[in-house]
Model the fold of this input.
Amino acid sequence: MNFETLIVEDRGPVRIVSINRPKALNALNAQVVGELTELVEETAISDTVRALVLTGAGEKAFVAGADIKAMSDMNPGDALAFAGKGHALGEELGAIGIPVIAAVGGFALGGGCELALACDFIYASTKAKFGQPEVKLGVIPGFGGTQRMLRRIGAARALELCMTGEMIKADEALRIGLVNKVVEPDALLDTAVATANTIASMGPLAIAKVKEVIHEGANKALDDANLQEQTAFAALFASADQKEGMAAFMEKRDANFKGE
Ligand code: CAA
Done:
């Protein structure tokens, strides 16, 4: 993998991806979105990577939004194509069968907040700031922010954030359920990687199914979503991982999952 805007580091089963355009506060242009999409697609077929941690290079920003300079001359057709790429990336992050954790240590604004929301969950440092300031630019979120924000924190809070463009700090983001955990800046990456390692030690087929039923269930009626859960639960009993996990419990030893 050879990327100009991403730094990729594998630590055991955990892949850490840092978006690296510090001079533009890691703003998302077409190249960054394209490289992230390629990275997710390559990671999806990896036999060794069991978790992804997404972060921003430098101390100031996770991602300060879609690149305003690149968007300033766009016509509606260009904007539709650009939004389509952002949405496709979000969908791929939701569909990849491993956990994706956003580690946000600074600004996560506009498309940056939307990118974090497209991850499975968000850990933040005490210096993180979140917001959807697109209305200040005369537009609205275009990478899934209105809809993922609605589903994450409810309509009234999503409307308030998207209408005021207000930036909120990490403690407020924690309070409203936008982020799962807030830690000191020095501890952010290690905390995200520790959780990623914990998940990576579980049965990979089970983790993929948890992700699938929760992501897909969010868009289904409860009866249909419950049926999907039952079917997935039953299907896992055809796996070697289920035999191994339950045998390990009964033999009082750690399980050795193979993802089979
Ligand atoms: N796009 C392009 N460049 C950006 C950027 C962005 N979203 N955010 C910051 N930058 C650039 C600045 O232009 C500046 O570059 P120069 O030094 O070449 O001028 C550099 O990053 C540093 O930024 P500042 O000097 O502004 O840093 P600051 O500390 O004073 O302010 C900030 C930080 C509050 C994050 C401010 O940069 C800011 O408000 N950025 C824009 C945030 C924003 O509006 N994001 C939403 C974009 S629209 C969107 O994302 C649409 C969508 O949903 C798809």
In short: Residues 24-25, 27, 64-69, 86, 107, 109-111, 114, 133-134, 137, 141-143, 145 surround acetoacetyl-coenzyme A (CB under 6 Å). The beta strands are 6-11, 14-19, 51-56, 61-63, 100-104, 107-109, 121-125, 129-131, 168-169, 181-183. The chain has a mean pLDDT of 97. The first strand starts at residue 6 and ends at 11.
